[in-house]
Here is the input.
Amino acid sequence: MRRNQKEIVVSELETVFSDSGVVVVAQYAGLTVAEMADLRLKMGKEGGKVRVAKNRLAKIALKGKHNENLEKFLTGQTVLLFSEDPVAAAKVAKEYSDENEKLKIIGGSMGSEILDAAGVETVSKMPSRDELISSIVAAIISPASNVASAISGPGTVVANIIDGIDEKKAA
Here is the structure.
């Protein structure tokens, strides 16, 4: 790889480390091309990406970043899984490593917080941004539907009583 190509890779990795909500570092020794393609597809569906880069270039890109201590995980054959959503990459990485033992999560970062493998697993259990939005919307709508049913409830009861009286008179 030429020097200018390395500079481009370092620049791209700097963006990954500074802009991602979560970065997961995993070892992927033994993963086939098809399995790696499957992992990329699953990450893409959740809005994340997968990046294989030389550890030396990744360490250069980490210099001066808020998650600089992530470099301790960059040994051996490593792959970076990252997403803007603070939990999407961790969820996909955990699910995929459960399916395929060739992918071993060794650590990661969430903002400036450095996570070990157990920390990444904990993050993977958190609700995603979309799940949080759904629960907030449900919480907002719930009181309104309760008010609507409380208002219409007595009217429905009165109408049923009147119908019952009409039926008795008709019989």
